[in-house]
Fold:
Amino acid sequence: MNRKVLIGMLVIVAVLVLTGCGKKKEEEKKPETNVEEKTNVEETQVEDTAPPVPEEDYELYTDDKKMVFRDGDNYSLYFYNGTKVTGHQYYIDYGTVEKANEALENYEKPKNVNKITTNGRFLVLEYAKSEYSNLTIYKLRNQYGDYEILPDK
Structure:
């Protein structure tokens, strides 16, 4: 009986060792293929569109003068002094500068928005003071509790 158990365990160990070694060889081959594919994709993208601009250029980060809340590809920026909110902008990410500029041409300005501009790939809505005059940073945190707050730069 002991021999059967010992032989069974040796067979299981041998199968696991052989299976583990086979996966490593497959994984070693895959990165080489992926590197070639990525290089071709990157070359194609560079020719078709402008290179992506880093987010830091758009100042989408929280600091001691503004809070940034993220909702998917859109961002709500609230400027504040002390605890009082002093400004509100909404950034809509269109992915490319061209798409953002096209959206600007076709966007109908809501009544509660003072100005609409673009900033790189973003369409930026600057809200009227009446939309944020009664807000504090504490109310914002309660209101946007489920949203991601972007960290400090």
